[in-house]
Structure to design on (219 residues):
């Protein structure tokens, strides 16, 4: 079971965890990405996430499906990403997976967040006291 | 042929608008479109990468574009 969402509302982490509960699962693994107060030494005031919604949702689903192919024992996958303005400590992304045993749950969760960062069409702009930068835009 | 291109993130800021209408040769490839856009907006060349998406998939360099395609310019992604 795959659940994908892109939202401008705060992410309900507890609900995301509940969404991957499965009778066949002995392990639930979660990655929660939060907004840090600094980036390469500059104090971050806030972030803005912009998304190409239709492609981001399509690519997120593909990443989840690829994880299911690599780890066929995956019981459920939930990926929820925020967009819009976020402040320090806000939850930007949640990946939750359930599997029969723990080893695959760690591997699948890491695969999903690592691949998300490479292919999913979401862009992060960091705002500092004295300027702003699109993350990763330039070499 | 006439293409409507959706722009996001820093590409949107460089071009100065969220969509771009452009006329290119029929059957133009993704690579050819990028060359045309680089010529018009040299700042795009400073980006770490710039991809073309067609109908919500990353397009191969030599993929021919069509008028009815949903085309977007994808600067380096930074989700998560």
């Amino acid at each position: 079971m795959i659940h994908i969402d892109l939202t401008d509302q705060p992410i309900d982490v507890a609900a995301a965890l509940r969404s991957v509960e499965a009778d066949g699962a002995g392990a639930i693994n979660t990655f929660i990405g939060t907004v840090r107060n600094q980036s390469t030494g500059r104090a971050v005031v806030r972030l803005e996430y912009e998304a190409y919604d239709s492609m981001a949702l399509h690519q997120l689903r593909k990443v989840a499906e690829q994880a299911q192919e690599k780890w066929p024992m995956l019981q459920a996958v939930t990926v929820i990403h925020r967009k819009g303005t976020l402040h320090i400590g806000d939850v930007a992304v949640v990946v939750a997976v359930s599997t029969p045993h723990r080893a695959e749950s760690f591997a699948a969760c890491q695969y999903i967040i690592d691949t998300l960062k490479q292919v999913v069409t979401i862009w992060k702009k960091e705002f500092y006291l004295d300027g702003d930068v699109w993350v990763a835009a330039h070499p | 042929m006439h293409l409507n291109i959706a722009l996001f993130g820093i590409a949107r800021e460089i071009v100065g608008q969220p969509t771009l209408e452009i006329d290119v040769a029929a059957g133009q490839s993704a690579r050819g479109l990028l060359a045309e856009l680089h010529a018009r907006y040299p700042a795009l060349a400073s980006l770490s990468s710039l991809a073309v998406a067609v109908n919500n998939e990353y397009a191969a360099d030599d993929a021919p574009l069509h008028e009815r395609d949903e085309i977007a310019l994808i600067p380096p992604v930074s989700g998560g």
Summary: Chain A is about 30% helix and 40% strand.
